[in-house]
Design brief:
Elements (H helix, E strand, L loop, with lengths): L13 H13 L7 H34 L11 H7 L4
Length: 89
């Protein structure tokens, strides 16, 4: 089919063959087209990546919220300014 969009070639290695077999079990209605199965796998992979990124962000935010302010009061007021007074200019 003519298109101006980039095309991608993929060799059906053993790894790709196993992925297609698993995809055919998950999406039996698409099992007659290996191309459609590949598209489904790409879409599922994208969803998994996005979900993992969301989870990582959420985890970091929880850690920040839990540890924020933990060392409040550990340093006297103007500590940094006083420390910098000893630095050469």
């Amino acid at each position: 089919m003519p298109t101006k969009k980039p095309r991608h070639l993929i060799t059906e290695t053993e790894q790709v063959s196993r992925a297609l077999a698993a995809a055919a079990k998950r999406w039996p209605d698409e099992s007659s087209s290996r191309t459609r199965l590949l598209v489904k796998l790409v879409e599922e992979g994208r969803r998994a990546i996005v979900e993992k990124q969301k989870t990582a962000i959420s985890d970091r935010q929880r850690v920040i919220a839990r540890t924020g302010g933990v060392i409040t009061g550990a340093y006297e007021p103007n500590y940094l300014a006083e420390l910098r007074e000893d630095w050469p200019t």
